[in-house]
Backbone:
């Protein structure tokens, strides 16, 4: 292969790529935080003794999980305004990723809750805690520790999904890379640098999550 | 006579179509130590779990210190109490479990403190001191900062006893307190329970340790098929069983 690598055009625009990466991280963080709350409630909904709650939770998870995220992004941004709900592109994307991650995290949390020995809840009740108190003090903290590895996997996967926000012109990393590519025609260099930036960011996220895992590990 | 600590009247409990308790009557006065014995499936553990409403019951009355547990009568109908009321009532009794059920993410002392702080609304330093006193009492003070995963079964069960008793309950419920323990760890736990009995704690125990039941109890209740088969002082029950069922059970339990 005879190709002259020339990264000058990419480096000239590197600040754009960096700001795009930063925005992607913020989008992921906010969406996943909201998604965690949704997922926790839905997981309890799935395990509820009330049939209506179970149905609603199952309905939400199947509807969202069985739709490609790109379709959800386009639907929220283009179709919802027709129905009277107009959101800016960033808000629209956060809503989409939050709802989407909520469905996946529901399954993560549900599996964590199912795996807990029932005696823990009972022990909480016998010292006079309410069902809610038992969840807050005992069930959720233990479940959360147990699902951290699975949670980390989802975090990384969802962070990479922020690249799809380029489809509605959210100025994140992929959006800027595409722009630089079109303006400079340095195809290989642009996408190589963008890819490495994703890899680097994901490696840092993974390392941070491992630290959290170690920090929260239950001794013994 | 003062109000009984525990008064069970005509208690019935069903799991689906199966009636596991078929009319139980049992009264305990302050300081009584009663052991429930019987083969598995006879309803001992279910009876214990009805006392603090870990199991709902369909018929009859369970009353602790004169207060009906879990339900009230309204216009002749039984109405389940609110969640918060039930939580308050549950804290009138303390319970230990076969598998200890310590909270694995908390140190021993934090296990004991949780109920004191959250349920009894004790200030943290007072709760710490109380928890420390009880851990000392069960011989676990030097391990107070250990997590359950770092303790042996016998040590975990002793922390679990401290957790229950620190709440100062009217009545202690022990569900097969030594069944999950290695034989060499049984005695350290039984010694703690005997000590509590000697202190005058009111206790209802489910146990497979016949010698222990004999030594610690004021009264022994033999359960069979969801009913009380025989009931009496340990010497009478163990040495002069009236029914063949009890005689056979004692023989199979190598008493």
Residues:
């Amino acid at each position: 292969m005879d190709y002259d690598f020339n990264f000058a055009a990419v480096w000239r625009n590197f600040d754009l790529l960096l700001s795009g990466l930063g925005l992607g991280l913020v989008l992921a963080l906010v969406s996943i935080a909201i998604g965690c709350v949704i997922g926790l409630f839905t997981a309890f909904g799935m395990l509820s003794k009330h049939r209506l709650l179970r149905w609603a939770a199952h309905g939400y998870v199947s509807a969202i999980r069985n739709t490609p995220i790109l379709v959800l992004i386009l639907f929220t941004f283009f179709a919802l305004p027709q129905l009277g709900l107009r959101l800016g592109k960033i808000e629209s994307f956060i809503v989409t990723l939050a709802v989407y991650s909520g469905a996946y995290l529901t399954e993560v949390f549900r599996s964590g809750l199912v795996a807990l020995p029932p005696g823990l809840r009972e022990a909480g009740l016998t010292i006079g805690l309410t069902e809610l108190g038992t969840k807050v003090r005992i069930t959720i903290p233990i479940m959360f520790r147990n699902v951290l590895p699975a949670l980390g996997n989802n975090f990384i996967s969802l962070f990479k999904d922020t690249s799809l926000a380029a489809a509605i012109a959210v100025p994140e990393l992929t959006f800027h890379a595409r722009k630089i590519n079109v303006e400079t025609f340095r195809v290989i260099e642009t996408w190589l640098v963008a890819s490495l930036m994703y890899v680097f960011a994901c490696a840092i996220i993974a390392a941070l999550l491992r630290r959290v895992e170690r920090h929260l590990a239950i001794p013994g | 006579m003062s109000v009984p600590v525990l008064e069970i009247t005509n208690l019935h409990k069903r799991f689906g179509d199966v009636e596991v308790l078929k009319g139980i009557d049992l009264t305990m006065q302050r300081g009584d130590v009663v052991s429930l014995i019987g083969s598995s499936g006879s309803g001992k553990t279910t009876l214990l779990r009805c006392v603090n409403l870990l199991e709902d019951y369909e018929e009859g009355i369970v009353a602790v210190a004169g207060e009906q547990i879990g339900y009230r009568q309204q216009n002749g109908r039984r109405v389940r109490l609110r969640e918060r009321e039930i939580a308050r009532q549950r804290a009138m009794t303390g319970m230990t479990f076969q598998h200890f059920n310590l909270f694995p993410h908390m140190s021993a002392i934090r296990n004991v403190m949780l109920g004191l702080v959250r349920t009894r609304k004790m200030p943290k330093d007072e709760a710490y001191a109380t928890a420390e006193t009880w851990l000392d009492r069960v011989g676990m003070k030097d391990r107070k900062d250990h997590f359950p995963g770092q303790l042996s079964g016998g040590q975990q069960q002793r922390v679990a006893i401290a957790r229950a008793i620190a709440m100062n309950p009217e009545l202690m419920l022990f569900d097969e307190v030594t069944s999950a323990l290695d034989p060499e760890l049984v005695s350290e736990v039984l010694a703690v329970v005997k000590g509590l009995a000697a202190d005058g704690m009111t206790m209802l125990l489910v146990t497979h340790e016949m010698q222990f039941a004999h030594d610690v109890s004021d009264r022994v209740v033999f359960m069979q098929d969801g009913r009380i088969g025989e009931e009496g002082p340990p010497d009478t029950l163990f040495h002069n069983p009236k029914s063949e069922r009890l005689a056979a059970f004692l023989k199979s339990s190598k008493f």
Remarks:
- DSSP finds nine helices and twelve strands in chain B.
- The interface with chain A takes residues 52, 54, 83-84, 87-88, 90-91, 93-95, 97, 99, 101-105, 114-115, 118-120, 146-151, 160, 163-164, 167 of chain B (CB under 8 Å).
